[in-house]
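ASSEMBLY PREDICTION REQUEST
Request ID: AP-0331
Submitted by: J.K., bench scientist
Number of chains: two
Total residues: 225
Priority: normal
Notes: Please return the full assembly, not individual chains.
Input sequences:
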Amino acid sequence: QVQLQESGPGLVKPSETLSLTCTVSGGSISPHYWSWIRQPAGKGLEWIGRIYASGSTSYNPSLKSRVTMSVDTSKNQFSLKLSSVTAADTAVYYCARESNGGVIVVWGQGTLVTVSS
Amino acid sequence: EIVLTQSPGTLSLSPGERATLSCRASQSVNSNYLAWFQQKPGQAPRLLIYGASSRATGVPDRFSGSGSGTDFTLTISRLEPEDFAVYYCQQYGSSPWTFGQGTKVEIK
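STATUS: Completed
Returned structure:
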């Protein structure tokens, strides 16, 4: 059974870059699509973007100018960087795996990132 | 982008009752690529339905999805205590993937 685990700083200063890594266990990072999704406290879900095992990406236009995703197949990990963060970026960040059809089938447990000085 | 509007915002029902949740899209969802997720407090969402009407592995058959185009429905035939949660619809037919704002099913 594939499991995902997010890791990274829980506190980021305004204007700095948020960096998270998702480690995949119980399966290979290839040949799947991997997504990042976030959820502010008490609010709904927002899709940030996805990356294929080959490295091709698709980002939400609302965040595209600040988002970079990458994949490291040797470590079975993929990563998210979000630059120039503000308090509005405070949220639980989830990594997830998609099925061949694009369905989000596996979720990590989520990690809370707070943007504050 | 496709905007998904869920209704009602909150549904107050008793165990054993039927729950009907609606998800309306601002434009047609390609290939009916519409999923439903259940989320309980402090947990990640859980996939219930994909392709508008296909149940995910391990999902009880009291959960059913229907609809096409722009109008979709999640039905819970008889609410069990563990079904009280927030439900989100999500479309994955057109990038960016988008989610509805959620429907909370609470105990009456």
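REVIEWER COMMENTS: The longest strand of chain A covers residues 18-25.
SIGN-OFF: pending second reviewer
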